[in-house]
Amino acid sequence: MKNYLLALDQGTTSSRAILFDKAGHIAGMGQHTFPQYYPKQGWVEHNPMEIWSSQASVIAEAITSIGINGRDIAGIAITNQRETTIVWDAETGESIADTAAKHQVFFTPGDNKRIPGWMQMHYRFAFDENGYPMMYIFSNCKAFIRTIPLLQYDEHKPEDLDSDGEDHVADEARYFCMSRPIKPRERAMPDEYYKNPLKLFLDVEKADLTSRTAIPKMQIISEDE
């Protein structure tokens, strides 16, 4: 019978596993610290494999401390430190943190302040079902025509344009679009009924279909009633 709940607490300095019984009392526990690394002033890093191995060991310690196995656990609750990002290799299951650090690949918060303006431009350049955009550029807008196609995404901020390029006209267009925001166009979804066997083989039109008749459940009436 599954009588225990396993709680995993992944902290910034240690890993902890606690087993609770049905009454909510602590039945078993394991806790191990793991190393902290300080590559430079104000930075702290963790080794992903050390986090994983320490968490696996405290789970085993909590379970063996009361002589149960995984079949006795009804569920698992997890709480983690949240501010740590780890990228794992999808094929090997190993962390690529060391490889990323070797090539000076680090993660920083994205700057999304200019994205709404670029999206407003994107909405206007999108073609509708008839092939017409919502924004036209006159042939005498030479600066727009010359600079916009040459702009590239920023190498370090892929959510934004490279400001080293000639982006003054792009900024002006972004400001203009933001002053008159529009909603994105939503493509009409194709009617899947035309792939339905009723249409393909029987040529039954959708308008000729009737809704399904609700059949009441069987009711057993005893002779005493």
Task: Give a concise summary.
By secondary structure, the protein is of the alpha+beta class.
Q: Keywords, please?
A:
225 residues; alpha+beta; Nucleotidyltransferase, domain 5; four-stranded mixed sheet; 6 helices
Task: Give a structural overview.
The chain has 225 residues and is α+β, with helices and mostly antiparallel strands. It folds into two domains: 4-102, Nucleotidyltransferase, domain 5; 109-203, no CATH class. Helix content is 25%, strand content 13%. It has six helices and four strands, in the order βββαβααααα. Strands 3-2-1-4 form a four-stranded mixed beta sheet.
CATH topology of the largest domain: Nucleotidyltransferase, domain 5
Poorly predicted parts:
none
Structural class: alpha+beta
Give the number of domains. 2
CATH class of the largest domain: Alpha Beta
> What would you report as the Rg, rounded to the nearest angstrom?
30 Å
Outline type: flat
What is the average per-residue confidence, as pLDDT, rounded to a whole number?
Answer: 82
**Please, how many helices?**
6
The number of distinct β-strands equals: 4
CATH architecture of the largest domain: 2-Layer Sandwich
Sketch the topology as an H/E string, one letter per element: EEEHEHHHHH
Largest sheet: 4 strands, mixed
Range of strand content:
5-15%
For CATH, the homologous superfamily of the largest domain is named as ATPase, nucleotide binding domain
Tell me the span between the first and last alpha carbons: 44 Å
- The side-by-side strand order for the widest beta sheet comes to 3-2-1-4
Portion of residues in helices? 25-40%
